[in-house]
Amino acid sequence: EDQVTQSPEALRLQEGESSSLNCSYTVSGLRGLFWYRQDPGKGPEFLFTLYSAGEEKEKERLKATLTKKESFLHITAPKPEDSATYLCAVHILMDSNYQLIWGAGTKLIIKP
Amino acid sequence: KAGVTQTPRYLIKTRGQQVTLSCSPISGHRSVSWYQQTPGQGLQFLFEYFSETQRNKGNFPGRFSGRQFSNSRSEMNVSTLELGDSALYLCASSLNGAPYEQYFGPGTRLTVT
Known about the structure:
Chain A is mainly beta and 112 residues long. Chain A contains no helices and eleven strands. Helix content of chain A is 0%, strand content 63%.
């Protein structure tokens, strides 16, 4: 069964304390992996797309990496405004159409 | 550039009623997708419309339907509402079609009593 698991469920960090969020997947035929952030009361905001193992993307304090089994979202020297829920979604093909499988998210809290 | 807009933002309905939600995509985007988000199930895909045609559909009952107009605006309709339909309904627009780089609206919070 195709599955996407995010860990940890929640993460509390001090401002400036770097860490990583994990998105592991067991799917057949990965077409791409997406990272989004979602603030309370808002829709998800697109961050990155990764297509193949070894690929890396960066944006400000965030860096996303991809292996054949998982993706990491590294947060360097985070600030309170980085607090949000981070969602990953895996793109696969099923019955000649696309399917997007979403993880449950990691709630990140950055304390000043 | 204006973002994705959804109306209404909040809605309270009674079980058995029907509801229509509206979504206006980013200008130039021809793809609109609809999602249901709940604390227990997370984000679940409802359907995608691209240039007025339904391109993909998730595993939701036929009570959930949608359409897209020639200006790319989309509506989602839920008939015979059930308590379990209470959720945040999100629409997302995409330039090249889902699932690539989707831009989400703020959502419509539907409460069914």
